[in-house]
Design a protein that fits this description.
Layout lengths: L1 H15 L7 H17 L9 H17 L4 E3 L2 E3 L5 H10 L8
Antiparallel strand pairs: 1-2
Helix pairs in contact: 1-2, 1-3, 2-3, 3-4
């Protein structure tokens, strides 16, 4: 996973327009969490489809970075739903196990 984090960090920083190293550790933790989250959703770590995978991880990190708090929804707090772009990429990159075997 370290290879994914180190190769994705410059892309994420560019996407978020972050200069310097002040937020690097926080961003690395978000990248690691995004990798785990996508694995849980059925998207394998994919360095062969590097551009789309980096985009997906970058979109997750951007969403979490920009929405650190919760959104007030009526009388209770909820987290924001995932944007359509993330959902779309997850569905396209998902590996569905063949249960007929």
């Amino acid at each position: 996973m370290e290879e994914v984090i180190s190769s994705t960090l410059p892309f994420v920083k560019s996407h978020l327009r972050i200069d310097g190293t002040f937020e690097d550790e926080f961003l690395k933790s978000l990248i690691g969490s995004a990798v785990e989250e996508t694995k849980d959703m059925g998207v394998p770590i994919s360095l062969s489809d590097e551009y789309r995978y980096k985009l997906l991880i970058g979109m997750f990190v951007s969403h979490w970075y920009e929405n650190r708090g919760q959104v007030q929804d009526g009388s209770h707090a909820t987290t924001k739903d995932l944007p359509y772009g993330i959902q779309s990429l997850v569905l396209k990159m998902r590996v569905i196990p063949d249960e007929s075997k």
